[in-house]
Amino acid sequence: MAKPNFSPIIYDYLKKYQQDPTSRVFAPLAEAYRKSGLVDEAIEIAREGLRVHPGFIGGRVALARALFDKKLYSEVVEELNPVIQDVPDNLVAQRLFAESCLMLGRVADALSAYKMLLYFSPEDVETGRIVKELEAQAYEQGTLVLRTDPKPAPLPDYSIRNAQEAIEGDPGLKREQWIHKIETLQNLLMRVERYRTRHSG
C-alpha cells in the first residue's frame, strides 16, 4: 500500500508533537489528520492530548469533529455538552452539538443549540430557517411549549457566605446565571419571531 502524500503542515505538527507530547499542538494535528481522511488517527491523537489537557476546549472540538465524521453522534454530544455549557459562544461546538442532536432525534436540544447560534449570528438566514422548522416540529411533538409567564429564578442564599464569595467563588451560581440567560434569550427570540410573523408582508 502506497504511503499517502500528506501536506507539509501535517509533518510540521507531527514533528512539534513528537518533540513535546505535552503540548497543545495535538489539536491542530488531529484536525489535519481528519482532513486527510485519517479519522481514526485523529481520534486517537485527540484523546491522547486530552488526557494531558482535559480542559482544553480546542482539543475537545477537534475530537468532536472526528467523532462526527465517524457518525458517533452520542459521543459528540457527550464530548461537547460541557463545552457549550461553559463557552456558549463557541459556534463550532454549538453547531456540531446541534447537528448531532438532530441525528439522534433530540429536537429540543438541537433547537436550543441552534437558537444560541442564531443569537450570536443573527444574520444567518439558514440557521433562522432551521430554528423555525424545529420550533414547529417541537410544538407538534409537545416537547416545547410557550411560557407566557415564566417563574422567576429563586434568589441565592447569601446568609452564610458574603456576596463576593457567592458571585465569584460559586461555579454552581455561575451556571445558574448562564441557564437564566439562555432561558431569557429563548423567550426573547420567540417574541421577536412572533413580531416578525405579524409584520411580514
Quick one: how many beta strands? 0
| Unreliable sequence segments | 145-152, 156-169
Largest sheet: none
Enumerate how many helices there are, as a single number: 10
What share of residues are in beta strands? Answer: under 5%
User: How far is it from the N-terminal to the C-terminal residue, by CA?
Assistant: 62 Å
Mean pLDDT: 80
Radius of gyration: 21 Å
Which structural class matches the secondary elements?
mainly alpha
Q: Outline, from the CA principal axes?
A: elongated
Helix content: over 70%
The helix/strand series, from N terminus to C terminus, equals HHHHHHHHHH
What's the topology here?
Blueprint: H1 8-19, H2 26-35, H3 39-52, H4 57-69, H5 73-86, H6 91-103, H7 107-120, H8 125-141, H9 163-168, H10 171-199
Helix pairs in contact: 1-2, 2-3, 2-4, 3-4, 4-5, 4-6, 5-6, 6-7, 7-8, 7-10
Structure description:
Helix 7 packs across helix 10 (about 170-200). The protein has helices at about 10-20, 25-35, 40-50, 55-70, 75-85, 90-105, 105-120, 125-140, 165-170, 170-200. The protein is mainly α and about 200 residues long. Residues about 145-150 and about 155-170 have low confidence and may be disordered. It contains 10 helices and no strands.
Give a quick rundown of the structure.
The chain has about 200 residues and is mainly alpha-helical. Helices cover about 70% and strands about 0% of the residues.
Comma- or semicolon-separated keywords:
10 helices, mainly alpha, single chain
